């Protein structure tokens, strides 16, 4: 019987292709890439908050699997909507890379007053405003290299450290934000893999590659986000770690201006229940008034 060739749907950016190749090699089976362009990749004139709904970077990739053009889809977990499609299963989350945000350009402590910093993420803007309200944010979109190129005209650019590490650009990092300074986005640094619910063979293969600790952490973070009913266009950060066998979750919600922030923590053994618990603590403190 001829060995199955696994078709991996992926966005076509350099980072996305790196991630898809990483997954393909990890699977240990013959594979080919199915490159997909999303509307958010093509239309760079719009800010991310101008796109309706969640999943602006994953819808077309998921559709390739649903249509039978690909067998599985690989995403940055931070881009994946909290509401799962009925026909797809989140079959694996791979071992997490560094989830922190990094600054390329001028080190954070050396940024001049009124520094111009590039990022289109409301979370990054709001939480950096808490530390430096004088910063002027410039919205920049595109793949990593495009953002770095645009950033040459600015004082600095904020990007995910994992992206720089994966593309061999770690030497460009001027500063790394600790989670208590700039809390990571839900799922940041992790790769999520979806396939069709009836593809039992592939579900089995992916289960062998799923990292249990990362899966638990990301499920907890996504559960918190779902409890708040928000997506990546809202200043929400969440970061789960396993310490001494227990899962610890920190969540924070900020106003777009950065003037107000609410945070909460929790510990537990059930990732989904933990996310709901911490999410409810944020809601009890008035999180809806910040994200509404």
Give the SSE layout.
Elements (H helix, E strand, L loop, with lengths): L5 E6 L2 H14 L3 E6 L2 H4 L16 H8 L5 E5 L11 E6 L7 E5 L10 E3 L3 H10 L4 E3 L5 H7 L5 E5 H6 L6 E4 L14 E6 L3 H10 L2 H17 L7 E8 L2 E9 L6 E8 L2 H14 L2 H5 L1
Parallel strand pairs: 1-2, 1-3, 6-7, 6-8
Antiparallel strand pairs: 3-10, 4-10, 5-8, 5-9, 11-12, 12-13
- Radius of gyration, in Å, reads 19 Å
Mind telling me which CATH architecture of the largest domain this is? Answer: 3-Layer(aba) Sandwich
Low-confidence stretches: none
What strand line-up does the widest sheet have?
2-1-3-10-4
DSSP strand count: 13
Span between termini: 56 Å
What structural category arises from helix and sheet content? alpha/beta
- H and E string: EHEHHEEEEHEHEHEEHHEEEHH
Estimated share of beta-strand residues: 25-35%
How many helices in DSSP terms? Answer: 10
Overall number of domains: 3
Q: Tell me, what is the CATH class of the largest domain?
A: Alpha Beta
Give the overall form.
Answer: globular
CATH superfamily of the largest domain: Periplasmic binding protein-like II
